[in-house]
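Prompt: Have a read of the protein record below and flag anything odd:
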Amino acid sequence: MSDFLIELEALATSMRPNSEHVSREKMSGKICLLSLKFDSNNINVAKRLTTEGLDLSERVSFIQQVSKAVNSEVFEFSTCNRVLYVGFDIEPAKLASGISEVTELENIPFQTTIGSDAWRHLVKICSGLDSFMVGELQVMSQFRASINFHKENNLICTFNLAFFEHVISATRSIRKELGYTSSTESMLNLGTSSLEDILAQKGDAQCVVLGFGEMGRKAVEALQELGQSSIIVASRNPQESATRDTDLAEGCKMITYSDLEDNSYAADIVISTMRCESPAYTENNPLPITGEATVLDFSWPPSIEQNGISNGQNLLGMEHWIQVARNIDHSEYTTLMQKGDELIVNIQTRYMEALSNKNEGRFRAFIYGHMEELSATWESSLLAHEKEIPQLGAFAREIATWICQQNRSFYISELMEYVNNTNRNLNSDLLAEVSHDIETSIRKLTAVV
């Protein structure tokens, strides 16, 4: 037989296929993440993508349809403000195409990440670092529930589920490092407390609520429970919005955003729950409200800029809620985000090193196991003398050790030289059989014939 170069990676391909998922080099091609945060520009698309509101069987059916369309396992996760899909062994474009096929939506504006970037993004989401209320615990609970849902309904295999368990493990580490051992106070509780403080001074107030989605309806409900009766609700389509909760709507004046801009209503309290990709009210397009209003912006991203309000008005926006929730100012928030990113990178590095070490350990176990199988055939060989049999197992382990100690590659002639020059006292016929079996098996393992 001619000499040839053996690549350790080629030997590793003889292990069970799942091993390649833990390869540092191959991770980028194995996992892709498509995510969409909801805003006013994509809300109609988002409604068709999210599984929020579907019953169990409908959600199972939807995910199965997507998986069938792309011929790959797919993990889906929906909350009130985002939806994301994770695909395995698939290109992002193919996953996006499959989702479009099932939902009958074209050109969905997904944010796309792959491999390690996808893992980091999921950790950032689950740890609460990507939430409006930084450090909130609810999203992690929702993510764990989604993992269990996919597991219980056989939507994703155990091996792929392990990827998400690593996300959860990293999330726990980050929350512990940042001191987030409990969730932040909910947005609703913070808003209600602020309203109570404001109304304790004002009594009956003129109130304007921007948006009548889930958060907008909660804002109206809180105002009504606090005894407020003069409430204007602005939305794109008041008639359609009112059908979401007719009882709440009957206690409000429902108008369009255009009506709001044309009439410049006076208000004491303005609550914005608008979904905006960028601020709706800015210096060039100020909030059309008169009076010394307190403006509570619960939108994320923010819907109102500081220079988008009039003199005498007070904006309680992102910086305020972050500071109230975690008692930190905006500069501390920026520092926190940087620290969070550094922690994620460090955890990912340790994670990948652990995967590499695990893969190397499995490779060693594979080689040692293979050589042990060969030694069993030598021990039963007619060429083996009785006094030689006890040596053959140890000799096989020595050969396995030599292979595992090589740096990435070796020539078959080098391995044969090591085998044939052994110091063990073996007869020449048996040694020839061992040498032949070793070379033949290595060629088969690397698919070289």
